[in-house]
């Protein structure tokens, strides 16, 4: 009998937990135990009412179970989505559209989650004893967690059914005769009387001037676990993998060549994984969603396409490195071999690229950890780079590569989770489309009311547009930024010219007519296009001038270099495109109160994740971001150590240095650089410089070095003087254009005035264009006619010939690879930057069908990229995995072909 009762209790716990629509707990979720309810439905009948999900198949099944076992008819039922259910929700102290939990409404109050489960169990005779005991001994936090785990996966188990709000057999047990469409509840929420709200913003955010508002959804302890605990864990794992690689697949010694080039034997899959990992900055995860929040669907596309073509085209340089300087170690070493006098110039821009990339990593990471966990930004700014020191110092580049694969795999797992959550589990492409159109349709007056301190769903009582003194309403008005007393003037303009702080209403420069004016659902976006140009120039600088990409090309096997870069670029495209098209568009669609400052600091993804998935979403984004940061951070650290070792220490301090000297200097530089980057990021944070600002600025400073570096390996006519003059003239021109444009537009010469799209665009374009023009013009006057022989004379410090097989480096093999990557690289770049946008332009404002097709591409690209980048490195490295496994366990896990070869060899020897 006891066993039967326990089974019944277990069933009941899963039953009632299932009475819950698949809606995540909010980060400001109401926690009710006994909220008084003035309920006309209890006037003549005091039996408690169970509010359940009327369209959940599992929920309705267990409603039938409760009906069958409630012989005393102790409870009544009502669908959460019905008119009566919505009224009861509001009278219980909850939003009428909040169907995130089963609710038990009693005469004394309302109960949710595990409390509701136990209270229902206590009212059924068969489960009363165990329910009473369970409520007494099981902590509420544990019970609620178990409830959420079952409820959140309910639709995946049994799916949906037609809405049920009554029952022919037990009609007297059900309340409500109208089922409200759930999608309408989301796009057009109403109060209990059915009056539509002005906005579809979730009611819990009414009157909020920011999403996080200084309240971290995770504890500070969580921040320490993520930054320190995971840093240590990933270090131990990477060190173990590197130890096994060195011990069983190499001689057992870490040479300088292996430390800084990974033995030049990295295969296609791992090369692609490393490229993806190195190119996945904090900005990739955070800034991409910011531009989606700002510009709509064009933002993720221009971020992805504008930063993919550089990786594709760098594949050309990867083959040229194998052809012309196979023994090189760094970009600057190659430049010095051809243009000795340009050594200092490109060393400067190389260091600049590393510092800019590392600063963005730390700024984005520290801001996110601070918002999610409450850890102080300065503490996070130092702990993040310090966490990459141990394994980078131990194994060098190969350790970084192995860790990068692990990081990339985790990033793609979280990516798929977010795509599924938004477009399958919680919403759909149709629903996101509807909400984006509604966000666009709000007028300036609507937005002023919505983002006011006392907004009640319909208006802001304190907001009076006819007030004699407009300054009187400013404390209650959150929509616009008030700076130096100029808010009064800019608000009087029509439309207002002052800075809008929230995504509400249309986007200036986006296509659309009438209510769709400034639509988020269009590729015709002036601001999106301007960002795209800035993105292209800036990322050419951070790829072509960043030693980490040269190091990856040097480390790759000759046959894998071009394929690795091509595959890496196409896979990486999925991260900003798919992630931002999910999280970034969802933020605007749901109309979360994410402020412009929060978005600029990269907090759009964590805000959406926390809103949809609660603390679990915050953990997922924090882990994903930390993986990106330490992966790219380790690559930047080893890149800087290589520049210092080969381009400062060796030529200027110890020309006769040995490989051991290089390894020692590299291991000294890594911790020093990590600590220095923490100091730099702290300084930028202190003066108010955020991730988005640095991202727009980077092309102005380093875009000028792109063309000379490209021509260093591809054009024999470019001279040393042309390269130096082109780099410095482009840099100066970029800064001048940046400052002059800001001044001409009347913007102040501060971080805000210099951070506009117009001034950043002018600086970026002038930097790269002037550089190329000057470099070519001066070289044409006195061309060099270089034969590339001095590049091939770059010496090895250790007699490590790995990856230098003459057959693999022969022109017969490399020339076809070069021709292939040229055709594919330039062809795909044309498709991504010209053909695709051109074909999307006639669509104007996307229809629901066109947007569904767009999202289909988003999901498919993300899925196939995940499969390739996680699976291919394992398949390619299976022989090494087999060797290590056999050495450790004696079990041969090689592929069938490997086993056949071993068998044939044994037979031949016998």
UniProtKB/TrEMBL annotation:
The chain crosses the membrane at residues 224-244, 265-281, 301-321, 342-363, 369-389, 401-423, 520-544, 565-590, 610-630, 668-687, 693-713, 725-746, 761-782, 820-839, 851-875. The keyword Membrane applies. It holds the Pfam family DCC1-like. Gene3D superfamilies: Sodium/glucose cotransporter. GO terms for cellular component: plasma membrane. Keywords: Membrane, Signal, Transmembrane, Transmembrane helix, Transport. GO terms for molecular function: protein-disulfide reductase activity; urea transmembrane transporter activity. It comes from the Eukaryota. Belongs to the sodium:solute symporter (SSF) (TC 2.A.21) family. This is Uncharacterized protein DUR2.
């Amino acid at each position: 009998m006891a066993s039967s009762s326990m089974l019944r209790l277990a069933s009941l716990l899963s039953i009632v937990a299932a009475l819950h629509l698949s809606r995540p707990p909010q980060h400001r979720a109401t926690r009710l135990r006994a909220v008084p309810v003035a309920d006309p439905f209890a006037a003549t009948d005091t039996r408690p009412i169970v509010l359940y999900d009327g369209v959940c198949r599992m929920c309705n099944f267990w409603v039938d179970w409760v009906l069958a076992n409630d012989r005393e008819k102790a409870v009544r039922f009502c669908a959460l989505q019905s008119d009566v259910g919505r009224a009861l929700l509001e009278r219980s102290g909850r939003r009428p559209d909040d169907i995130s939990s089963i609710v038990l409404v009693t005469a004394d109050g309302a109960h949710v989650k595990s409390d509701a489960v136990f209270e229902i169990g206590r009212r059924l005779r068969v489960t009363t004893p165990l329910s009473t005991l369970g409520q007494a001994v099981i902590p509420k936090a544990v019970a609620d967690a178990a409830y959420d785990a079952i409820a959140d996966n309910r639709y995946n188990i049994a799916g949906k059914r037609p809405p049920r709000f009554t029952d022919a057999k037990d009609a007297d047990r059900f309340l409500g005769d109208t089922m409200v469409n759930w999608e309408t509840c989301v796009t057009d929420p109403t109060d209990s009387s059915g009056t539509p709200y002005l906005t579809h913003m979730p009611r819990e955010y009414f009157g909020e001037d920011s999403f996080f508002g200084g309240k971290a959804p995770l504890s500070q302890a969580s921040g320490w676990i993520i930054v320190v605990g995971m840093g240590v864990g990933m270090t131990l794992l990477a060190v173990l993998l590197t130890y096994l690689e060195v011990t069983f697949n190499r001689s057992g010694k870490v040479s300088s060549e292996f430390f800084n080039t990974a033995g030049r034997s990295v295969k296609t899959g791992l090369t692609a994984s490393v490229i993806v990992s190195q190119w996945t900055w904090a900005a990739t995860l955070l800034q991409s969603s910011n531009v989606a929040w700002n510009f709509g669907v064009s933002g993720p596309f221009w971020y992805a396409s504008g930063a993919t073509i550089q990786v594709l085209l760098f594949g050309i340089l990867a083959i040229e490195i194998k052809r012309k300087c196979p023994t090189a170690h760094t970009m600057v070493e190659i430049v010095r071999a051809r243009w000795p006098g340009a050594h200092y110039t490109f060393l400067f821009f190389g260091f600049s690229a590393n510092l800019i990339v590392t600063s963005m990593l730390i700024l984005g990471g520290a801001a996110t950890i601070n918002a999610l966990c409450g850890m102080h930004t300065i503490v996070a700014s130092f702990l993040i780079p310090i966490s990459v020191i141990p394994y980078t110092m131990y194994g060098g580049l190969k350790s970084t590569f192995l860790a990068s694969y692990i990081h990339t795999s985790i990033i793609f797992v979280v990516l798929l989770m977010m795509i599924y959550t938004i477009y399958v589990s919680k919403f759909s492409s149709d629903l996101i489309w509807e909400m984006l159109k509604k966000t666009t349709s709000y007028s300036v007056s609507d937005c002023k009311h919505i983002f006011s301190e006392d907004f009640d769903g319909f208006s802001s009582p304190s907001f009076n547009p006819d007030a004699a003194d407009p300054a009187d309403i400013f404390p209650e008005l959150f929509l616009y930024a008030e700076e130096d007393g100029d808010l009064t003037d800019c608000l009087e303009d029509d439309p207002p010219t002052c800075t809008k702080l929230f995504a509400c209403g249309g986007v200036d420069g986006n296509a659309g007519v009438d209510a769709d004016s400034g639509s988020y659902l269009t590729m015709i976006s002036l601001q999106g296009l301007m960002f795209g140009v800035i993105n292209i120039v800036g990322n050419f600088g951070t790829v072509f001038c960043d030693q980490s990409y040269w190091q990856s090309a040097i480390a790759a096997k000759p046959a894998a270099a071009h394929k690795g870069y091509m595959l890496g670029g196409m896979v990486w495209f999925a991260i900003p495109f798919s992630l931002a098209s999910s999280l970034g568009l969802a933020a605007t669609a749901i109309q979360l109160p994410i402020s412009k400052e929060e978005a600029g600091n990269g907090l759009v993804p964590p805000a959406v994740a926390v809103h949809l998935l609660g603390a679990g979403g915050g953990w997922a984004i924090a882990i994903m971001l930390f993986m990106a940061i330490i992966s790219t951070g380790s690559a930047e650290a080893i890149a800087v150590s290589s520049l210092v070792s080969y381009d400062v220490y060796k030529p200027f301090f110890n020309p006769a240095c040995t490989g051991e000297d290089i390894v020692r200097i590299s291991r000294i530089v890594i911790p020093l650089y990590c600590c220095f980057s923490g100091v730099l990021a702290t300084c930028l944070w202190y003066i108010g410089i955020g991730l988005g600002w640095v991202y727009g600025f980077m092309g102005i400073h380093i875009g000028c070095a792109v063309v000379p570096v490209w021509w260093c390996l591809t054009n024999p006519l470019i001279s040393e003087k042309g390269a130096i003059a082109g780099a410095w003239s482009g840099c100066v021109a970029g800064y001048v254009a940046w400052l002059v444009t800001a001044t001409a537009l009347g913007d102040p010469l501060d971080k805000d005035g210099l951070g506009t799209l117009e001034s950043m665009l002018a600086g970026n374009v002038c930097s790269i264009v002037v550089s190329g023009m000057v470099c070519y013009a001066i070289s044409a006057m006195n061309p060099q006619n270089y034969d590339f022989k001095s590049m091939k004379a770059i010496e090895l410090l250790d007699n490590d010939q790995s990856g230098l097989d003459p057959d693999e480096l022969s022109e017969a093999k490399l020339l076809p690879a070069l021709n292939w990557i040229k055709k594919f690289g330039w062809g795909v770049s044309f498709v991504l930057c010209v053909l695709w946008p051109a074909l999307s332009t006639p669509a104007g404002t996307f229809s629901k069908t066109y947007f569904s097709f767009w999202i289909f591409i988003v999901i498919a690209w993300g899925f196939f990229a995940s499969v390739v980048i996680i699976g291919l490195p394992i398949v390619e490295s299976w022989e090494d995995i087999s060797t290590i496994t056999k050495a450790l366990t004696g079990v041969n896990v090689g592929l069938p072909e490997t086993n056949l070869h071993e068998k044939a060899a044994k037979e031949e020897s016998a």
